[in-house]
TrEMBL record:
Family to which this protein belongs: Belongs to the nucleoside phosphorylase PpnP family.
Protein name: Pyrimidine/purine nucleoside phosphorylase
Provenance organism: Domibacillus antri
Coiled coil (residue ranges): none
Enzyme class: transferase
Organismal lineage: Bacteria, Bacillati, Bacillota, Bacilli, Bacillales
Name of the encoding gene: ppnP
Length: 104
């Protein structure tokens, strides 16, 4: 999906790590939500409440899920983070992403 339709966007940005990671929240009529954002080069750790689908649209990063080895995405790719987990990122180039929050 390259275009999101029939959505509401929360204007206030989500800003993390001194502005190196930012996103905007997109709300869908069915109650689901996504965030669209940019990550600048750096190392980050995030925690989840819900299962997340991290759709990397452009950039290069390494990611590490709990109990797994580091994996790399260059260009585009998708990875999933279980609910109530922590994951690590090493972002090498400015990275464009879309995070979907999954109720599974």
């Amino acid at each position: 999906m390259t275009q999101l339709q029939n959505v509401s966007i929360i204007k206030k940005a989500n800003i993390y790590f001194d502005g190196k990671v930012t996103s905007r929240t997109v709300l869908f009529p069915d109650g689901t939500k996504k965030t669209l954002g940019i990550m600048l080069p750096g190392e980050y750790e995030f925690s989840t409440d819900l299962k997340e689908e991290m759709d990397i649209l452009a950039g290069k990063l390494d990611y590490k899920l709990t109990g797994q080895d580091w994996k790399t995405i260059e260009g585009s790719g998708v990875f999933y983070v279980p609910a109530n987990e922590t994951f690590q990122l090493k972002v090498h180039t400015t990275t464009d992403y879309c995070c979907s929050y999954l109720n599974e």
